[in-house]
Amino acid sequence: MSEIGISMPNVTVRGPEAPRNLESLDPVFQVEDLSVFYGDYEAVRNVDMTIGNREITAMIGPSGCGKSTVLRCFNRMNDLIPGARAAGKITYHGEDLYGDHVDPIEVRRRIGMVFQKPNPFPKSIYDNIAYGPRVNGMKGKMDDLVEQALTQAALWDEVKDKLKQNALSLSGGQQQRLCIARAIAVKPEVILMDEPCSALDPIATTKIEDLMQELSRDYTIVIVTHNMQQAARVSDRTAFFTAEVDEAGVRHGRLVEFDETSRIFTNPADKRTEDYITGRFG
């Protein structure tokens, strides 16, 4: 594909100028020929990608292209859906994530998840954060652990004087940061985020985006987003998915292109990526 210049008004594309080394990729996940089925239906087919350590990877694409389905494979959340199964291979630090010896509960402790809609427990702010460490039998002073998680989630200063209040009294943006703090509290390595800002206003969205970039110093982050500008602003690498219709008229999600975000948004290798980014379809 010849070089193109794609205009993305009012968007700053995060790229190699950021203080990161994108030349060498330290793999956390390696995905090889991944297909995901719900019963007999193949929702996603033949995905290959690598998720780098302490990078933010964004997955973009139109609705129904399999982004969230692939995301849930990284912590085996799809196991909880009757009839769901994954074919192909996903390794986590070289270990088969779906091997017979692997405990999916331990997988979900190491690989935390933040959902589209904030979902705090109907408990106090303190108990929301302390719940996971207590269940996992983590040692140490709980007060210190709660403060550390809330501080990392940029929420401590806003809630330190009301830790006994019900978490549902917080604003939507605060609830989402609380959910991020709750995920951090069990000390995962990876944080998965499924459209974490879709229910938030622009100010709360900016806080979450700033938080993601700060957290990526210590955590590997994979985010699904419909917001291309958000992917351009926060991610190091971007995967573009689309939905294809086969000869039988059945839709399947496919990974079209995976590259550094700066290339995806300025010089994509596939015409379908260019068409989506410029608004010609999707």
Q: What order do the helices and strands follow?
A: EEEHEEHEHHHHEHEHEEHH
Q: In CATH, what is the class?
A: Alpha Beta
Mean pLDDT: 90
Strand content: 25-35%
The CATH architecture category equals 3-Layer(aba) Sandwich
Number of beta-strand segments? 10
The order of strands across the largest sheet is 6-7-8-3-9-10
Going by helix content, strand content and strand pairing, the class is: alpha/beta
Regions with pLDDT < 50 over 5+ consecutive residues? 1-10, 15-23
The biggest beta sheet reads: 6 strands, mixed
Overall form: globular
Calculate the terminal CA-CA distance, rounded to whole Å.
Answer: 21 Å
The CATH homologous superfamily is called: P-loop containing nucleotide triphosphate hydrolases
- Kindly identify the CATH topology: Rossmann fold
Provide a count of the helices: 10
Q: How many structural domains does the protein architecture include? A: 1
Percentage of residues in helical conformation:
25-40%
Radius of gyration: 19 Å
